[in-house]
Amino acid sequence: MAYVSGEKRDDGACPFCVPVAEAQELPELLVQAGQLGYVTLNLYPYNNGHVLVLPYRHVADLDELREDEAAELMSLVVQARVALQAAFAPDGYNVGMNLGSAAGAGIPSHLHFHVVPRWAGDTNFMPVTGDVKVMPETLDQTKRRLVEAWPT
């Protein structure tokens, strides 16, 4: 409801800046916590299972990542795809990022990869005519499935 009503965070902080210790406990939407980055459910998903892969460090562009951060983020992207395949068996995936507001980044100051499972025919009249996306399960249910399917 906060998103729908246009409410902003009171503290103005980046919503993607998660303390490493907090991430290690996997609160709320976090699916997997790494050493340098983490995977979280997208609070406003395009499809069920839509996850974001982010560095803990607040950086806006790829050239700001250290090599170890970039390597771990790519590893987390691969692990997310493996877990999504095991949990949801989609027909395909969109994997990518939007760098900068002009490219569609909702939070351009903290880079993040999107990993979106796709199914043949997953676009229907609801988003086209009603500007509404229907999700068949809650974020809690999606998180549970992904955590259980995460590769070890």
Task: Give the SSE map.
Elements: H1 20-24, E1 30-33, E2 37-41, E3 51-55, H2 67-88, E4 92-96, E5 113-118, H3 125-129, H4 139-149
Helix pairs in contact: 2-4
Written overview of the protein:
This protein is α+β, with helices and mostly antiparallel strands. It has one domain (20-149): HIT-like (HIT family, subunit A, 2-Layer Sandwich), CATH 3.30.428.10. It contains four helices and five strands, in the order αβββαββαα. The chain has helices at 20-24, 67-88, 125-129, 139-149; strands at residues 30-33, 37-41, 51-55, 92-96, 113-118. Strands 1-2-3-5-4 form a five-stranded antiparallel β-sheet. The radius of gyration is 15 Å and the shape is globular. Mean pLDDT is 85; it is low at 1-9.
Distance between the termini: 35 Å
Number of strands: 5
> Portion of residues in helices?
25-40%
What is the ordering of alpha helices and beta strands?
Answer: HEEEHEEHH
Percentage of residues in strands = 15-25%
Which geometry do the CA atoms define?
A: globular
Low-pLDDT segments: 1-9
By helix and strand content, what is the structural category? Answer: alpha+beta
The number of helical segments is 4
Strand order of the largest sheet: 1-2-3-5-4
Mean pLDDT: 85
CATH superfamily: HIT-like
CATH class: Alpha Beta
